[in-house]
Specification:
The chain is of the alpha/beta class. It has 23 helices and 14 strands.
């Protein structure tokens, strides 16, 4: 792998919209998004039944691609690093070769038409880089305009790659005949969806799938509307956010009876999806029911990100991925990439994290936090100082902002909030109800922030000299006094002095007196 920075633009010519993302890839920093743009071309308009692309839509599509290429050039993407794939509507059109030739002649862009199975594979590459896939099997699905892809996978690999012609634009054109949608139209859609998902449902049942991960604009829009209905702040990134079956059913019951004019006023609904959201809602309802799911996780990564990852792998002649590659820890990888982007002091941060984890383990009988908080502490410790990239002054606040907006992959929005708060409180004032963001956390999350920030403050003090002096921590307890016996390499005066200055918050949280001694 080269150490040079490489910029790549990936264009997805979908049934409903054309999208482009521009990313920069470099060692250590990983893949960083530079820009993204979308144009609702609706290239599939009318073509689903006629199998012919509309002339006006083709002209609009070519104009959009010209603008995309100008934007890519402005961002320093070399022409040979612009990749473009066409999916369902173009794949099925009788005049696709004419359209592709016109694109090439007018823009110089060579568009590759991919099969439904390839589309599912690229979606899988993208999703597994955004949502952590474990040992149990998950259903991944991506709702497009012309097709819907179904993937069943765990961290060892894929068991199903399937593309079905049940995209929302196709289904709206074929089955929705009235506004508001008639009960008979809903019934026809439900029956059609059910018939098309038979093989995926059977495979999921055999593999005991109980979680689904949804990518695509339809799923994100559903998640955003559910968030609005329940008073949750709409965040730029919905990655790893979750909506439950009960939450979805509330949205479904509220939206389905409405006509298009009333739907247009619905908070959170994208104006371009006023009609297409209907088959989208009915499909997601059937997925919940047929796969017997309790919740759906949202992935920000999908086809375009998968295209980029596959392109980079091929460009650098990476060998075929062994099984263990599937087990990569995208959460830790994402934390390290964010640290690198902020030019962090890696040695110092890793040592603070090591000390913090020792303290978490040795103080477990007193803090009673669940085990998953240990990983959040480690991540906050690794990233606690990245705000120095902006300014040393108030760098703890800058760290919080960067973590909240750094697009960490694999974490839920709540986990990112906890990590950011713990980093924010590693110095200066401890958590306080006077701080608006902290005051809005749930009590269980406040408790986690209180304990973890107290531990991080202590660990940060024990690494005050930035020289990795304290190697080990042992604990003895007598009545209400906890004694930390620290093992140093050199005289630990500065580390003990700094830890003494920072220990008061964890003493308050644990209601214990802490004494620090050199072993």
């Amino acid at each position: 792998m080269t150490t040079e920075k490489l910029r790549v633009a990936a264009i997805d010519l979908g049934t409903n919209s054309f999208h482009m993302i521009i990313v920069e890839e470099s060692r250590g920093k990983g893949i960083v998004e530079i820009d993204r743009v979308k144009n609702m071309i609706c290239i599939g308009r009318g073509s689903i039944s006629t199998k012919m692309l509309d002339e006006e839509a083709m002209q609009s599509g070519i104009a959009a691609l010209k603008n995309f290429l100008v934007l890519a050039a402005h961002h320093g993407v070399a022409p040979e690093n612009v990749i473009a794939f066409a999916t369902s509507a173009i794949r099925e059109a009788k005049n696709r070769l004419d359209f592709l030739r016109r694109i090439r002649d007018e823009t110089g862009l060579k568009v590759r038409v991919i099969s439904g199975r390839e589309e599912a594979e690229f979606i899988y590459y993208g999703v597994r880089k955004a949502v952590k896939i474990g040992t149990t099997f998950d259903l991944l699905f991506d709702i497009g305009g012309g097709s819907v892809e179904f993937i069943i996978a765990n961290n060892k690999g894929v068991q199903l790659l399937e593309s079905r012609k049940i995209g929302v634009a196709r289904m709206f054109e074929r089955f929705v005949t009235s506004d508001p949608i008639a009960r008979n139209d809903i019934k026809m859609l439900e029956q059609f969806f059910s018939a098309e998902m038979v093989s995926a449902v059977a495979k999921a049942s055999k593999l005991k799938v109980n979680r689904a991960i949804a990518s695509s604009g339809t799923a994100q829009n559903i998640a955003r509307m559910i968030g609005s209905m329940h008073g949750r702040a709409n965040k730029a990134s919905l990655n790893n956010s979750v909506f439950t079956r009960k939450e979805f059913e509330s949205l479904y019951m509220a939206l389905i009876p409405l006509g298009s004019l009333e739907r247009r006023k619905f908070t959170g609904l994208d104006a371009n999806r006023v009609d297409l959201i209907l088959p989208g809602l009915i499909l997601v309802d059937m997925i919940f029911r047929l796969f017997d799911l309790k919740e759906i996780v949202v992935s920000d990564y999908a086809l375009r990100e998968g295209m980029v990852l596959h392109y980079l792998k091929d460009r650098f002649n990476a060998p075929s991925e062994p099984d263990h590659e599937f087990e990569l820890d995208i959460r830790k990888e994402s934390v390290y990439e964010l640290g690198c982007r902020c030019d962090w002091n890696r040695k110092h941060s890793e040592h603070v994290a090591s000390l913090a984890l020792q303290l978490f383990d040795t103080l477990a009988p007193f803090h009673h936090l669940e085990a998953h908080n240990r990983e959040l502490l480690e991540c906050a410790s690794l990233l606690h100082n990245i705000g120095s990239f902006i300014s040393i002054s108030s760098h703890h606040k800058h760290s919080q902002y960067i973590i909240l907006n750094g697009e960490l992959r694999g974490f839920s929005p709540t986990e990112i909030e906890i990590i950011a708060h713990v980093a924010r409180y590693h110095r200066k004032s401890p958590p306080s109800e006077k701080h608006v963001a902290y005051s809005q956390l749930k009590p269980v999350h406040k408790r986690a922030v209180d304990v973890l920030s107290g531990i991080l403050r202590l660990a940060n003090g024990l690494e005050r000299g930035h020289r990795q002096n304290i190697q080990n921590i042992q604990v003895t307890v007598k009545a209400s006094v906890i004694t930390l016996h620290v093992t140093p390499q050199f005289e630990p005066d500065i580390e003990i002095w700094a830890a003494e200055q920072l220990k008061s918050w964890i003493e308050t949280v644990l209601q214990k007196t802490i004494v620090i001694e050199a072993a």
